[in-house]
Amino acid sequence: AATLGAMMIAVPAFAQVTDDNLADKAAAATTSADHLEIAAYYRALADDSAKRIKSHERMRAQLGAVGKPSTSWNAHCNGLIAVYKNAEKEAIGMAQEHEALAKKSK
């Protein structure tokens, strides 16, 4: 699992880029394949964030539908939705950057 701040993000086990080696992989990236591998890592982070957004939106709606729209639950869901939306946006941006670098590389 990858970590983004205090969040645990699931990254496929086959991914060669991990939190532990991301900085090294990015620093050493010279080929198209290197950059596409890093882009895939960021796409996985974005996908996981999108799933978590939907999960918290569903939770918030379900709690409201059963008459339990607690202020703390809403704040919890709304706070995490905002965090995951930002994480998704940032991960997509980094994926796009590495995809562009891949096009310029051999």
Task: Describe this entry's structure for a reader.
The protein has 106 residues and is mainly alpha-helical. It contains three helices and two strands. The protein has helices at residues 22-28, 32-65, 71-104, and strands spanning 2-4, 7-9. A two-stranded antiparallel sheet has the order 1-2. Helix 2 (32-65) runs antiparallel to helix 3. The two termini are 30 Å apart. The model is unreliable at 1-6 (pLDDT under 50).
Task: Summarize the topology.
Layout: E1 2-4, E2 7-9, H1 22-28, H2 32-65, H3 71-104
Antiparallel strand pairs: 1-2
Judging from the principal axes of the Cα atoms, what is the shape? elongated
Q: In terms of structural class, how would the helical and strand content be classed?
A: mainly alpha
Order of strands, widest sheet: 1-2
Task: Identify low-pLDDT runs.
Answer: 1-6
Total number of helices: 3
Strand-and-helix sequence, N→C? EEHHH
Biggest sheet statistics? 2 strands, antiparallel
Q: Separation of termini? A: 30 Å
- Give a count of the beta strands, DSSP E runs of length 2 or more: 2
Strand content: 5-15%
Rg, please? 17 Å
Helical residue percent? over 70%
On the 0 to 100 scale, the average pLDDT is 85
